[in-house]
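[recover] target loaded
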């Protein structure tokens, strides 16, 4: 009898030392399954919101392309004079830029382009106040964030051939954005269009020459960019480049449409999928 009691006590002791009971283990398994189910639902919800966001932004870009809904010179003046006071929060504003075609690259089977009116600043200490990088002290050997500068408006004058050209010492009003060619903040479904990371070409179309030529021969390709401007006073910055006074505002690129203005056909789309 004594022996049986001793054995029972030993078994109870061993069971206690071995961890949770079967009921406790089952309860933990149910909790874990519930957490996994909730995580799956949250993932599905975020994916659905992302898809909706992408489609809404593409629809907005298409509507702007089809209806020539671009920022006017008056809008741009107001953007800088009123420091974004008249901006609608979260609204996308569209500006169009010419695409200049390079010679077709037969070695790599691609047609490259530069964006007219864009300046590439791969290590922009100038814009560090509005694109702060806490990890960079801007000492020799360190780089600031890579920025793209888009001219929204500039001061022009008439040359001897009665053509309007930018004044040699004229002012520029620009949108400064993080370099989406490097930071990959835009997604696309057209894999034939790819950003060029260098300073000379901006984007390339990987198609045979017989596909590229009908689009480039008329020099009518354009890039429509949808900007979301920062309305805060600290997002504005004045600087100088050569003889030009530069007035800049920080912006996010929400969408990009590439198309032919002669036919109004859209060839490529890029969109920001993040909030």
């Amino acid at each position: 009898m004594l022996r049986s009691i001793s054995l029972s006590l030993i078994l109870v002791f061993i069971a206690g030392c071995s961890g949770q009971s079967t009921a406790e283990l089952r309860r933990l398994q149910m909790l874990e399954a519930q957490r996994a189910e909730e995580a799956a639902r949250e993932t599905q919800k975020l994916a659905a919101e992302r898809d909706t966001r992408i489609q809404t932004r593409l629809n907005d870009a298409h509507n702007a392309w089809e209806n020539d809904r671009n920022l006017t010179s008056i809008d741009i003046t107001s953007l800088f004079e009123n420091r974004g006071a008249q901006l609608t929060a979260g609204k996308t504003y569209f500006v169009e830029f010419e695409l200049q075609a390079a010679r077709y690259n037969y070695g790599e089977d691609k047609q490259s382009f530069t964006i007219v009116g864009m300046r590439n600043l791969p290590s922009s200490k100038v814009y560090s106040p509005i694109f702060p990088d806490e990890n960079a002290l801007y000492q020799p050997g360190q780089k600031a964030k890579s920025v793209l500068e888009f001219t929204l408006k500039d001061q022009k004058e008439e040359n001897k051939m009665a053509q309007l050209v930018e004044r040699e010492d004229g002012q520029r009003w620009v949108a400064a954005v993080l370099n989406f060619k490097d930071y990959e903040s835009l997604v696309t479904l057209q894999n034939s269009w790819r950003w060029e990371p260098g300073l000379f070409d901006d984007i390339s179309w990987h198609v045979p020459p017989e596909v590229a030529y009908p689009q480039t021969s008329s020099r009518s390709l354009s890039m429509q960019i949808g900007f979301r401007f920062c309305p805060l006073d600290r997002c504005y910055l004045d600087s100088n480049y050569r003889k030009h006074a530069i007035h800049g505002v920080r912006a996010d690129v929400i969408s990009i449409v590439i198309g032919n203005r002669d036919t109004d056909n859209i060839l490529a789309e890029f969109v920001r999928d993040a909030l």
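[recover] notes: The two ends are 73 Å apart (CA to CA).
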